[in-house]
Amino acid sequence: MPLLDQYLGAPGATSFPARRFARQERGESTCLIAWPDGRPVGHAETRRIGCDAPAVRAARPGCPEIGGLGVRPEELRSRGIGTAPVRAAEDLARQRGITAVGIGVARDNPRAAALYARPGYEPLTDHLDRWSYEDVDGVPHACVDPCTFLTRELR
Fold first, then answer.
1. Which CATH superfamily is domain 2-153 in?
2. For the chain, what are the domain ranges?
3. Per residue of the chain (155 residues), what is the pLDDT tens digit?
4. Which residues contact 20 (CB under 8 A, 6 or more apart)?
5. Which of 26, 14, 16, 87 is nearest to 4 (CA)?
6. How far apart are alpha carbons 150 and 136 in whole angstroms?
7. Cα 83 from chain centroid?
């Protein structure tokens, strides 16, 4: 966990990797980490419970969500590091007999949308992604991002 916090975490009362691993411990998700050259640089999480947004749950009930995809530092982007956890998440879904997965993309992030379109993710519905965090002083912050939920049928 210290390496994940150092390279992928954000300062706060409860670190980003720690929140993900807590969900994994509860059986709600699987954390996926890319470790080239002995350090974590890419990450994603597959939430078996699906997206929290009511619009997504109504449009595609039970669809697992690949979320929190990221690569740090930025100069490592566009090298396939972000694609690897998405493929791993899809493989995990296939192993569980799941026929489709989804991923949310912020509407102001065309680069990520292009990444997801290449393997065949298609728009399902727009929604608001609501999330929160505590800063280093313990002050909670609520965030809302306009997103599009994309899905891909697995073969």
1. Gcn5-related N-acetyltransferase (GNAT) (3.40.630.30)
2. 2-153
3. 666 766 666 655 456 677 788 889 999 999 998 888 888 888 899 999 899 999 999 999 999 999 988 888 888 888 888 888 999 999 999 999 999 999 999 999 998 999 899 999 999 999 999 988 777 788 889 999 999 999 999 98
4. 29, 31, 43, 45, 68
5. 16
6. 33
7. 12
Nearest Cα to Cα of residue 15 among 135, 97, 100, 101:
135
Question: Is the distance from CB of 148 to CB of 107 less than 8 angstroms?
Answer: yes
- Any idea which residue has 């740090």 for tokens? 72
Q: Which amino acid is residue 28, in one-letter code?
A: E
Instruction: Kindly give, in sequence order, each residue whose CB lies less than 8 Å from that of residue 69, ignoring residues fewer than 6 positions away.
Output: 42, 43, 44, 82, 85, 86, 103, 112
Decide: 148 and 129 in contact? Cβ < 8 Å. no
Question: 3-class SS at 72?
Answer: coil
For β-strands 29-34 and 122-134, DSSP reports them as unpaired
